[in-house]
Amino acid sequence: MTDDVTTTGVPGGPGGGPAPGELAGKTAVVTGAAQGIGRETALLLAEAGAARLILLDRDAGQLETVVKEAAGLGATAVAVAADLRDRELVRRRLRAELRAAGTLDILVNNAGVADENGPDDETTWLRVLDINLHGTFAVTAACLEYLVAHGRIVNVSSILGKAGKMRNTAYCASKHGLIGYTKGLALDLAARGITVNAVLPGWIDTPMLRRELAAQADEIGADPARMLRQARKGIPLRRLVEAREAAELIGFLVSGRAAAITAQSLTVDGGYTRGM
């Protein structure tokens, strides 16, 4: 799709992400790593010198592509192809890779789904909560014994972790829950010097967003391209946020420069929520 407003990131290159080599020797787990924010985060960590990446996603084929991309940047990357609802498989595979790595420095909980639901749709409600909230808990619990002192956890929530949206009770509840989980976990782990923060993306130009818009357009008989243009007009910066820009915020939070930031929820939305 084309538009007269650019959707590229900040001119001149990377923003506030870690510098090359800043994460040298670090081991990181990134969930939802096959595309979008997860993929960009994995590659950014590799560029910053992370030595070992454990990448989890249910899309095995695309995940292998990201593993190869990360390897091309100098990182040892391994794929854990699993659905977060399969708790036993996730725990077993993750712990096997973490035992091989020995320790863990960074955990980025990015995996999630954004299925719409009616207010009485229990099936979708349970599925979304199971993946977005309970899945994040399960991954974190499996990682905690390996996480080093002064390690970093970043949970990817959403601007809908602070607001509501029609036909999104499950998604909104899960993302609100992630913010509460972040705050509580940050206090639990503070004595170990581990920081826990949440990133709240708004309109991010990802495959997930394109699918959501296409489904909504089909439901109401609208043009997806027109819906996207309308969405841009509602953003003060008049563009979607790039997945890379969200990844750079995550990169900053896992860097040494963010050692005093914890229990926070930081929004990256081009001004869409007007500072809510």
TrEMBL record:
Biased composition (Gly residues): 10-19
Cited Gene3D superfamilies: NAD(P)-binding Rossmann-like Domain
Pfam families the record matches: adh_short_C2
SUPFAM superfamilies: NAD(P)-binding Rossmann-fold domains
Source superkingdom: Bacteria
InterPro entries: KR_dom, NAD(P)-bd_dom_sf, Sc_DH/Rdtase_CS, SDR, SDR_fam
Region (Disordered): 1-24
Domain Ketoreductase: 26-206
Family: Belongs to the short-chain dehydrogenases/reductases (SDR) family.
Name of this chain's protein: SDR family oxidoreductase
